[in-house]
Write a structure and sequence with these properties.
There is one protein chain. This protein is mainly α. The chain has a domain of 40 residues. The chain contains three helices and no strands.
């Protein structure tokens, strides 16, 4: 049974200790497009991992990628 923790003001999920949950770097671009829209990482195939996109862009997190748009 998984326990749900309240979302923060920014509507992001929180971990048990209240910190914002980070996306795993093996999350697929196709999965992220479901959450962030079909234009997310437009030059990448849907089976590309987030870590590949971040490495190509020289970024360290999904948050940095989103803010860069």
């Amino acid at each position: 049974m998984s326990k749900h923790y309240p979302k923060g003001l920014d509507d992001r999920m929180r971990d048990q200790n209240g910190e914002i949950r980070k996306k795993r770097d093996d999350t697929l671009v196709g999965t992220l497009r479901q959450e962030y829209g079909s234009n997310f990482a437009p030059n990448y195939r849907s089976d590309t991992k987030l870590r590949t996109v971040l490495k190509d862009k020289g970024l360290g997190s999904l948050d940095q990628l989103i803010k860069r748009k």
